[in-house]
Amino acid sequence: MSSAAPSNIAVQNHVLPSYLNADNLGPWGIYLQQVDRVTPYLGSLARWVETLKRPKRALIVDVPIEMDNGTIAHFEGYRVQHNLSRGPGKGGVRFHQDVTLSEVMALSAWMSVKNAAVNVPYGGAKGGIRVDPRSLSRAELERVTRRYTSEINIIIGPNKDIPAPDVNTNEQVMAWMMDTYSMNSGSTSTGVVTGKPISLGGSLGRREATGRGVFVVGSEAARNLGLDIKGARVVVQGFGNVGAVAAKLFHEAGAKVVAVQDHRTTLYDPAGLDVPAMMEYASHSGTIEGYRAEVISGEQFWQVDCEILIPAALEGQITAKNAPQIKAKMVIEGANGPTTPEADDILRERNILVAPDVIANAGGVTVSYFEWVQDFSSFFWTEEEINQRLVRIMQEAFRAIWQVAQDNKVTLRTAAFIVACTRILQAREMRGLYP
Fold this sequence. Notes:
By secondary structure, the protein is of the alpha/beta class. It is built from 13 helices and 12 strands. The strands form 2 sheets. It has a 7-stranded mixed beta sheet, sandwiched between helices.
């Protein structure tokens, strides 16, 4: 993950929050560039554009816990609410040793854009703790989760801000968060988080939703390019919940997944990897390292001949350095913010289509919305119904964004920002300023 500011950020045009370093804006700087690129297309709504450049609320909390050995450890936690004009905040919580405030701010802003792009009634939020969860025991992980939830309790809630799983968090973490919030509020509140276990009000299809959305958007993009998925070569970075599910669905559709990279290794097979077998292997080992396939370097990964590249790991992975080496016809962003603005420009010049994160990986938040609605009504849908609704929403959103891109002769990312930022700022303008 790259935290360095892109070299061409014109920060002098922005009034930056005092708690950010103007010389090293990190992911927030990338987001600001994206907003600048969309501003000329906002018409009269451009007078409100500074709304998008400031998070509504940023909370930094200390998370002290007692370790198993009796010592006291302190971790830094964040919860950022970027914009709440269209509804309560919505966004995941990640546990990672490299989490920064700039990163969480950018992720919360991208959630605002993502939710508006698929037109679900949420604002954008995000959370994180600077901790390597692999260094914690299960008991320590539970204590960190519960203490963090108690600290951010003042700004979350079913009608205020609804966390969800993200990097290194899962159904169990969401269950602990829900239980902690419920204990503090005095009643069971299933709607305070999404991505929960089914037994606690979780939704069928939620675990696979983000990867399924990547596949749906990838299929729509391929159709528009005249590319047949059957026989297409696919390369996937990240073999977690998003990358593995997307790889599996492309594999089932007849594509050949020829390279996969996780946090430990990169595997390659020009004849196509056995994705279901790899998923089974990774479920036991926690990595694809050691699976029977040729190992290539991380640098070679970006040079693999393919039709579809799916970055589904962390942000800042496709840069000006490796973008010229990419040999795909299209990039489907499963991760949040995996492509820097400089790399975006390079890919566009090379006629490589980029389906941006704010639409490509919106399947997770879409089914999170379904989960939230089901929790409020205490009426639950079948997995078939969930998947049908997901596919319909994703297809409609992508087709609308594709048309905007064609009409304005802009990239799909700029088109997605045009659609989303227009919706956000229309809501802001109609609501007005109070007091």
